[in-house]
Amino acid sequence: MLSKQIAFYLGSTIIVLLIVALIFWQYSKPQAVHVLPVTKGKAIEAVYATAIVEPVTWAAIAPIKTGRIVELNVDEGNVVNTGDILARLDDADYQARVLENEALEEYYANEFERAQKLIKTGAISKEKYDQRKTQLAQIRAKISMFKEQIRQLALTAPMDGTVLWRDVELGEVKEAGKPLFWVGQPRPLRLEAEVDEEDIPKIKSGQSVLITADAFPEEVLEGLVHWISPKGDPVSKSYRVYITLPEDTKLMIGMTVETNTIVKRKDSALLIPAKALLEGSKVWIAHDDKAHKVAVKTGIQGEEKIEVLDGVKENDLIIVPPFDNLSDGSEIRTR
Length: 335
What we know:
By secondary structure, the chain is an alpha+beta fold. It has four domains: 31-44 and 267-334, conserved putative lor/sdh protein from methanococcus maripaludis s2 fold (Beta Barrel); 47-57 and 185-265, Efflux pump adaptor protein, beta barrel domain (Elongation Factor Tu (Ef-tu), domain 3, Beta Barrel); 59-90 and 158-183, CATH 2.40.50.100; 92-152, Orthogonal Bundle (Helix Hairpins), CATH 1.10.287. The chain has three helices and 21 strands. A hairpin with a 2-residue loop joins strand 16 and strand 17. The protein is elongated, with a radius of gyration of 39 Å. The two termini are 53 Å apart.
């Protein structure tokens, strides 16, 4: 019985010692780190922004009054000329007022003609004559006002072009200020991008722009910066940038795209992973199975790669995250 107890305690002791030894070995062995080599390649710094595809020449047409559509003359794709009536809102009330006041105009015109004859003979006072003249002028002003309101209820094409978009059907009631038509030229197209104010100093006319769109996921399209708006939006803290597209672009009006404007480029540069750069422009490098923290001088900074001008050389092994608990000179195992 005693020998069994001794054997039990001895076995337990051995197990505990093995566990302690395993823990000691785990903590004492060199830390494993992931490394990537310093490489040579293209260094690109780009400014990102989203953009909308739009025609260079176009206009939105919206009613200035709320009303019901009683006449609809065009559909999307129709070619129109300046002044063509695209649609008309209900103007029956104003038409009735014109007819009513035209009847009064005829009466006041006759009264004024009579007054002109009577004033010459002295049969009417100057005051009465002026009153007749004023009445005629007032009624004619009313007619002009109602006719102008009728004119404003007709939505007309502001330019020669094509109906690019229509958002109205006959009989619908539409609110004032809501665009019902886009009229313009289908080509050429451009991008209207919103660039953060902190990035706008980097943007210049003529810079290349790389464009990606969900509609063409496997392709990178190109454009050129054409114009930067001189005034920014203080609310969104952004500036409007217009980007010229090639005549044969696949993009279509209204598409949302992502843009990267190339602001710096170098074809042969030393590159390190962007995630490896520490605060103070330092990196961890692996050399002789030890970790060393070195200072580097950086150049072009891209989203994934950063150019290094000094501090490391090609094929040096850069330690990438995670690198917690590293210290200068500590032993490591590289992966």
